[in-house]
Amino acid sequence: MKRNGHNKSPKIQNPSGSEEALKAQAAAAFNRGNAAFRESRWVDALEFAERAIALNPSLPIAHVLKARCHARLGDLTAARDAFAAALRLDDRHFSSWLELGNVSRRLGERERAIQCYERAAACDPQDARGHLACARALEELDQASAQDRAAFHYHRALNLSGNEPAKLVEIHHAMGRFRLDFGNAPRALEALRAAMPIFALSPKTLTIDMKSELFIDMADALLRLGLEDEASDLLSRASAAEREATLTRLAQLGFRFNLWQEAIEVLRRSVALHPESGTAHYNLAHMLTESWRLEEAVEALDAAESQTNMPDAASMRATLASKMGDADTALRLYRAQVDAGNRDMASSVAMSSLYSDTMSPAEVAQLHRELFAPLGLGARDRSSFKNDRNPDRPLRIGMVSADFHHQHPVNLFMQPMLACWDHAQFPLTLYFTGISYDDQTHLAKSRVDVWREMTQSTPAQFARQVEADAIDVLIDLAGHTSQQRMHLFARRMAPVQVTFLGYPGSTGVPNIDWIIGDSVVTPPEHDALYNERVARLPETVFCYSPEADYPYPNMPDELTERPLVFGSFNNIPKLTPHTIRLWSRVLKAVPGSKLLLKAPSFGDAGAQRRYANLFFEQGIDRERIEFRGPVGLADMMAEYADLDIGLDPVPYNGGTTTLQAMWMGVPVIVKAGGHFVSRMGASFMAAAGMPEWIAENDDEYVAIAVEMSRDRRALLDLKRQLRQNLVSKPGWDRTKYTREFCGLLRQLWNQT
Known about the structure:
Strand order of the largest sheet: 3-2-1-4-5-6-7
Largest sheet: 7 strands, parallel
CATH superfamily of the domain at 557-732: Glycogen Phosphorylase B
Shape: globular
Low-confidence stretches: 1-10
Strand content: 5-15%
Structural class: alpha/beta
CATH class of the domain at 557-732: Alpha Beta
Number of helices: 32
Distance between the termini: 38 Å
CATH topology of the domain at 557-732: Rossmann fold
Number of strands: 13
CATH architecture of the domain at 557-732: 3-Layer(aba) Sandwich
Helix content: 40-55%
Mean pLDDT: 93
């Protein structure tokens, strides 16, 4: 186990001496352990607790300390056993029952948790915490019979406040937070609103930070419900906070709901109020990084490290390298983190490898296997599930995603599928792990049979819920992207597990049975690259059939007279050195042509300078390149009118961007590479019936650019008809695609 800021382990001696001496030694060991616990040295505290127990097995508080250490170290089963041992010695210990309830809840043992909370409330009926915990756990049962009991405990906690305004606000606020964690925004809002008139009548009872914390949670509930105007007022009021932690929470909430600029300003205020805090500077650097303001992010990160040692700075520098397009540096920095024992960075290593110019497809596949093989140790066996194997019955489908929100590719592709879903034959449960809510989140929620809020769920709670829902086929929609649950899939939560859409290649994760592809993006000769078995859709891996109306561009004859414009709207990490060399060859081969590059990073002047210099090193003058930063989705789609031909990057192809370009009348030159991530473009162009736009190597790529730009009239005619041509193809027919997708799921159920 990793030690927390302490290099030496306390040595446990064999107990000896008189009973009183042993008790004294046990008390001393407990005191030292308690001190270590307060300093967050969990391993040392655990060893002292075990020494105290060895010296005096009848010391209840030593067992409590042991349990708390196990809980902090993530061993919930050991924590549960230690609390139980403490309670065998003293079954009237309020905190032990309360904390045992918390551990049981995290383990997904809801009924046991309720029993523990009720025992806590019985041990100390005057402590509101036991009643609040009962109320929370009972509400989570989502049973009518439990709601009356929940209401009893909630109101019992309120009665214990003695009508003190601060205590009443605290109880309502705590209940509101519990409900938010459970994903019940309407009920959370009820509790939080109940607190508002109390401090309005007693304004001096709460500090500005306490009020701001309440405003933040109310705004969160309102935003989840789509009530943006009310939320905006509360967020503005919360910005008067002074405590660093409160300002950080406010910024995080703003970021979750796409209020990036406002979040940055809140964190700038935090830095101004707490200039000596490295954490304040670091949080600002993180927000600037997420907002693609990279030069400013580097400055803020430098300021953070000048204040104090920042353990997470190395991973942020890796992220910055990736966002600046330096995939190999990002990969090296992330791998160093993993090698140093930070397994949380493994998915970042995997993602970075997909962008690398220097790794072969076989090397990428092997890296994924090596990174994630340990996750499967001790996994549940498929045979332990008792699902009915009748091949013709309705199949219960589960999907795990954090990404049902505006502009996210998963949302763009999945919403049309959900609109066509066959709920009778494939009842669908969505396990939502996200932190961002908007109108698209609410739309997705309305389109599934069951929506479960799982963001705050522990691994045990998650697995127990999936089993309780009797899911037959569980689909991962995230891969190694943010808010993913790869470790849970590796341990197996359902009889059949599938990865789709969220990650362009093999996850390398054990116990994911299938990956969904097609005959072009995952040809049979590439099967050895996949940890999963490959299931192939008949047309194309993804169906692009947007629900929003994006007006088709007007394309007058005069377009043939302007300089030909190549372009790409792909994010900077895809603009690898190989891509820059290839696109520079295209520009040289088509004299007078220009290149339009649009990406979030290009709102940053430093990114523009960097890429202008990279192209200049390849002999391309700055005047031939136009950089554009981010805008809203509708405006971005309209900007495709400024392109004549799209250029697909290598090795990480465009996915959503390529399909969006084609939808707006821009054909794209693609290169068929060696694995999923570098064959997506070929899949799309093949499905569109445009194989002449697919190159097998760099020379063919340049030759296609020359050939397609030679006859401007023919190119314009193609562009004018492109969307009409696409909608006639099966790969753009959402109804047919969804029917085939569901049919494929049944095949996988029958074959696994």
